[in-house]
């Protein structure tokens, strides 16, 4: 319950965010609605891969793995620009784009971990790359300033000290990606409702 409140709390502030100048633009609204659906699809595929990790490695509950997580250095891609009081579409889009690129690379961990699910992993990688490209293209089309934030999120995969650490890292990459997608989805939905 506390985690739910913490994840939702930043969205209370968004209701006071200034209206985006582009909120009435029909092309922008079409972009938002298409990519809301696309983000929902990616979230569903991540959930499928999370179930595979749970079934295959019995890694199902985050709270049971928190001590191991501290040793792994797996961090959440930042999205603070998507839920701050100074919400700006271009800054939020830039962070979504950059985070999708980071998770695209991090998903490579599953090609070795789950060789029987290569097609699902490759589909997720392709979808993350395509959504990132969609956002980049829309930003360019609308003349929005593109900002590249320093890489704080998932970067090159660390060398894993054991197969178990590799598996747990994969578990947390997916958990972080799912939270990232939830925030991105809420930001897109917020803009679509303005």
TrEMBL record:
Keyword Disulfide bond among UniProt keywords: yes
One GO biological process term: immune response
Main location, first listed in the record: secreted
Molecular function (Gene Ontology), one example: granulocyte colony-stimulating factor receptor binding
Leader sequence segment: 1-16
Pfam families: GCSF (PF16647)
Cellular compartments annotated: Secreted
Gene Ontology CC: one annotated term: extracellular region
InterPro entries, per the entry: 4_helix_cytokine-like_core, GCSF/MGF, IL-6/GCSF/MGF, IL6/GCSF/MGF_CS
Keywords, in A-Z order: Disulfide bond, Glycoprotein, Growth factor, Secreted, Signal
Record family assignment: Belongs to the IL-6 superfamily.
Entry protein name: MGF factor
Native organism: Zapornia atra (Henderson crake)
């Amino acid at each position: 319950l506390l985690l739910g409140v913490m994840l939702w709390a930043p969205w209370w502030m968004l209701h006071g965010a200034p209206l985006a100048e582009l909120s009435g633009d029909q092309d922008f609204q079409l972009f938002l609605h298409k990519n809301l659906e696309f983000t929902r699809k990616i979230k569903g595929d991540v959930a499928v891969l999370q179930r595979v990790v749970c079934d295959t490695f019995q890694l199902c509950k985050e709270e049971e793995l928190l001590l191991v997580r501290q040793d792994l250095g797996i961090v959440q891609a930042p999205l603070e620009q998507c839920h701050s009081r100074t919400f700006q579409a271009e800054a939020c889009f830039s962070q979504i784009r950059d985070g999708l690129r980071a998770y695209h690379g991090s998903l490579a961990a599953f090609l070795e971990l789950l060789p029987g699910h290569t097609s699902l992993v490759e589909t997720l990688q392709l979808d993350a790359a395509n959504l990132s490209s969609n956002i980049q293209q829309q930003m360019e089309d609308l003349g929005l300033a593109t900002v590249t934030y320093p890489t704080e999120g998932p970067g090159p995969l660390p060398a894993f000290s054991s197969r178990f650490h590799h598996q747990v890292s994969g578990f947390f990459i997916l958990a972080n990606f799912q939270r990232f997608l939830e925030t991105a989805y809420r930001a897109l939905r917020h803009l679509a409702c303005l």
